[in-house]
Amino acid sequence: MIEAIRWSREAVLVLDQLQLPRKVEWVRCVRSDEVADCIAAMKIRGAPAIGVAAAMGLALGAREPAAREAVSLADFFAVISARMAATRPTAVNLTWAIGRMQQAFAAALPRGLEAVRAALEEEALEIARQDRETCAAMGRHGATLIPRDARVLTHCNTGSLATAGSGTALAVIREAHARGRVKLVYVDETRPYLQGARLTAWELAQDGIPQRLIADSMAAFLMARGEVDFVVLGADRIAANGDVANKIGTYGLSVQARHHGVPFYVAAPLSTVDVRKATGAGIPIEERPARELTELAGIAIAPEGVGVWNPSFDVTPHQHITGIITEVGVLRPPYWQSIPEAVLKSGETSGFSTA
Ligand code: MRU
User: Fold this and answer.
1) 119 with 191, same domain?
2) Positions marked active-site
3) What is the whole-number distance in angstroms between the Cα of residue 130 and the centre of ligand 1?
4) Which of 14, 123, 153, 156 could form a disulfide with 104 if both were Cys (CB 3.0 to 4.6 A apart)?
5) Residue that terminates a domain, selected from 136, 170, 205
6) Containing H/E element for 125?
């Protein structure tokens, strides 16, 4: 399976997703702030993967000489945690993972630096291990929803590059394909960052899953021709009422799917749920640099100085979502009931994030 991130005690290795699919190149981070820079620059991206990277980055931080030299280890950890939390605002898995690392830190602190180092390493690896299991469970729950010989449409990248395992939506597609249910996957190129064209198409090609790449603007016409049976994509944050923040373009797809009567599913772990946000209106939406729109592979494609709006995510209203595939099963409307119920039952505390 493709790996997006690796841990060793001396370093965190990040597969540089900015180079894909041209080159497979690893970045070696030896300091916590280098991992934070990788997240901010999107060398590693995708909600669960960002959480895993942040956790490993904090475990690495505790191993830096600066942690030993710090007057207060607690202050040092608070500073590197804040730096990590400031990297990207929308995916709640980031603050969820940092929250778990903070709890592990606090429990180990009275036993000194070596205990803190061991506890943080253990917790980061446990977050990654749980994510792998979660991906597999989402795959199993979601695969049963996909009709035979389905033509499935997906958006952005939700696979091994976006998680520590087989993915969220892509885990569902992978498992359904293994069960012989997927005829074809339509991959939205996902302007402007092209996670679909660069990353999802690469992952599907490695798995030998039949695919066809489309520009985002082609999805509606494809649905109108009756050529899409099922839409499944991921989430960066899910509010308590089931509104979903995900990659820009998701909302538009949901409108098109609703219009054409195509089932529209979101696959996400419970760590992506933020029950502190009553609705999607409270979810912070990241805005990214203008050059992601005005340039393509470093070449200008728009007049210099043109005004740009570049939100990286949008919010899909819960009414447009047929079901939310999680590790504990498929949640159905009314989400204001099924989401908090699932969160409470699982003991998942992501809803208590501070972002
Ligand atoms: O900006 P990105 O590439 O980090 O955005 C990723 C997405 O929007 C994914 O769809 C989402 O994180 C779910 S992936 C498991």
Assistant:
1) no
2) 236
3) 19
4) 123
5) 136
6) helix 113-143
Residue pointed to by tokens 């999680």: 326
pLDDT in tens, 304-352: 999 999 999 999 999 999 999 999 999 999 999 999 999 999 986 644 4
Q: Are 231 and 314 part of one and the same domain?
A: yes
| Residue-number span of the structural domain to which 263 is assigned | 138-346
More confident residue, 157 or 348: 157
* Whether 96 and 161 share a structural domain: no
Number of domains in the chain: 2
Query: Quick one: 145 and 131 in the same domain?
Result: no
Q: How far is the CA of 234 from the centre of ligand 1 (A)?
A: 7
Distance 112 CA to ligand 1 centre (A): 37
Atom of ligand 1 nearest to the CA of 155: 10
Residue 159 Cα: closest atom of ligand 1: 15
- Residue whose CA lies nearest to ligand 1 atom number 15: 158
**Could you give the residue ranges of the DSSP H alpha helices within 213-334?**
219-224, 250-260, 291-294
Q: What is the CATH number of the domain that holds 229?
A: 3.40.50.10470
Predicted model pTM: 0.96
Indicate whether 353 belongs to any domain: no
Q: φ and ψ at 305, to 5 degrees? A: 85, 0
